[in-house]
Design brief:
Mean pLDDT: 90
Largest sheet: 2 strands, parallel
Order of helices and strands: HEHHEHHHH
Number of strands: 2
Distance between the termini: 21 Å
Helix content: over 70%
Number of domains: 1
Number of helices: 7
Low-confidence stretches: none
Strand order of the largest sheet: 1-2
Structural class: mainly alpha
């Protein structure tokens, strides 16, 4: 087994735990739907986070040619999946009894700061990640990568600061559209 294959197991586990938490949260919402007050902005962020978990798994493959792997580099590479996993924990209330009432709008606004601060940390870590793969790799991603990442960061920090419902409604949709667009523009192949 080569070093990348060995190390990617733990990365995959952390990302899979995040996906599992998102899917379990959705399953709980469906299973106890009569006692759940859904909030569409929260539902869009569920989609956004799940998509980000998938994209993070997809782009991790770009580390496959890294030689040599050091412990510090491995610890650094663990940061992004850990951020996404923690965000998946914050996005949902703790698992509750099916007969307990849950208001997802109240939960969303009660936890938006922690969720968006965590999520905003992904961008600077991702920029550093891309630079660690080499300046040519970073430049190959094009200006849309840097501009998009900067827009993500500013939008997420703003979402952490404000409780303005109109902003959260707008930004949930904007983030989804931006993520889909950038994913297909930059990360559409495993190269």
């Amino acid at each position: 087994m080569d070093p990348f294959s060995y190390l990617s197991v733990l990365i995959s586990i952390i990302l899979a735990l995040g996906m599992t938490r998102v899917l379990a949260g959705v399953g709980e919402m469906l299973q106890a739907r009569s006692r759940r007050r859904l909030y569409w902005v929260h539902a869009v962020w569920i989609t956004n986070l799940f998509l980000y978990l998938v994209v993070a798994w997809w782009i991790f493959y770009r580390w496959r040619n890294q030689q040599p792997w050091t412990f510090l580099l491995f610890i650094f590479v663990l940061i992004s999946p850990t951020i996404l996993y923690l965000a998946s924990i914050v996005l949902f209330p703790p698992e509750s009894a099916p007969d307990q009432f849950v208001d997802y709008k109240a939960h969303y606004y009660a936890n938006h700061r922690a969720f968006f601060i965590l999520f905003s940390c992904f961008t600077p870590v991702d920029f550093a990640d891309s630079l660690l793969k080499g300046v040519p790799h970073f430049l190959e991603l094009g200006p849309q990568y840097f501009v998009s990442g900067s827009i993500f960061f500013v939008g997420l920090v703003t979402a952490a600061i404000t409780r303005n419902e109109r902003y959260h409604q707008f930004y949930a949709i904007f983030f989804l559209l931006q993520t889909v667009t950038i994913s297909f523009a930059i990360f559409y192949t495993l190269s």
